[in-house]
Amino acid sequence: MDILIADDSAVSRRLLEADLKKWGYRVITASDGTEAWNILSGEEAPRLVILDWMMPGLSGLEVCRRVREQANDHYTYILLLTSRHEKEDLIAGMEAGADDYLVKPFDQNELKVRLGPGRRIIELQRELLAAREELRVQATRDSLTKLWNRRAIFDILAKELARCQRENSVVGIVIGDLDRFKGINDSYGHIAGDAVLAEVADRMLHSIRPYDAVGRYGGEEFLMVLPGCDEDSTLAAAERMRESVQSSHIELLGGSLDVTASFGATSLKKDAYATPETLIRVADCALYRAKQDGRNRCVYLPFE
């Protein structure tokens, strides 16, 4: 675990650094409060900090206050070193944001023990953040394809339509549906069908721009939201996805399979208004026409 030592005494820094390395920490040092603050305000800042109270530039208390004023998901555990013995001084240090303090001179073993709770707090928070991220993924991602799930892609479309209204911009949407997917499940089994869905999702994802969004809208249906796309660019994006789906065989246990998909597209022009439902309805009609016209094709219908 990384730990920052901020102390204007070179001797104190070296002694602390030697002990901390012996205890398994990766040590970063700062010779004054300003340098410490510059390190702590960076993106990869250490989360465990030993601050001397009295330092040039910013004092330990001032660094504490600035750290606590930051809006940050990652907690920084601060141990304050001080030669002050008065109760009021210690209270001031804790009120400034220090988690614990040691009065100089201190025993090495006491320092080691005092750092233990900080290390446990930081590790626990990392576990909580990881659990929170896992819950967020479960709530917004489709478990099979790892694309946005139905609710999430619908919310993305709603937000994009709201942005179009604010900025008077355009947006395209595409609905894709695998051709004769029931036959794949019936002939090869649902495990093979899942493998096909995952592969098709990956191919479509790699055929769109980084700021486009694609989600699993239904069983074998996918919804794409394409910011800034008019009729021509929306249809072109749909065609790229169609070509990516049929670009090569999909390898399955016991053989390979050729898969195609049909796509229905529409777009919202400038100065127009649409709800997600009404725009999806037009794209769905375009998809139905693509199926009627023989599948493995893209059809665009204008949004009136």
How would you describe this protein?
- This protein has 304 residues and is an alpha/beta fold.
- It folds into two domains: 2-139, Rossmann fold; 150-300, Alpha-Beta Plaits (2-Layer Sandwich), CATH 3.30.70.270.
- It has ten helices and twelve strands.
- Strands 2-1-3-4-5 form a five-stranded parallel sheet, sandwiched between helices. The chain has a five-stranded mixed sheet with strand order 7-8-6-11-12, sandwiched between helices. It has a two-stranded antiparallel sheet with strand order 9-10.
- Helix 2 (33-40) packs parallel to helix 3, helix 7 (181-188) crosses helix 8 and helix 8 (190-205) crosses helix 9 (231-245).
- The model has no long low-confidence stretch (mean pLDDT 91).
What brief labels describe this structure?
10 helices, five-stranded parallel β-sheet, 304 residues, Rossmann fold, alpha/beta, Alpha-Beta Plaits, five-stranded mixed β-sheet, 48% helix
Query: What fraction, in percent, of the residue positions are helical?
Result: 40-55%
- The total count of strands amounts to 12
Main sheet overview = 5 strands, parallel
Listing every helix as H and every strand as E from the N terminus to the C terminus, the arrangement reads: EHEHEHEHEHHEHHEEHEEEHE
Determine the strand fraction and express it as a percent band: 15-25%
3D shape:
elongated
Rounded to the nearest angstrom, the radius of gyration is 29 Å
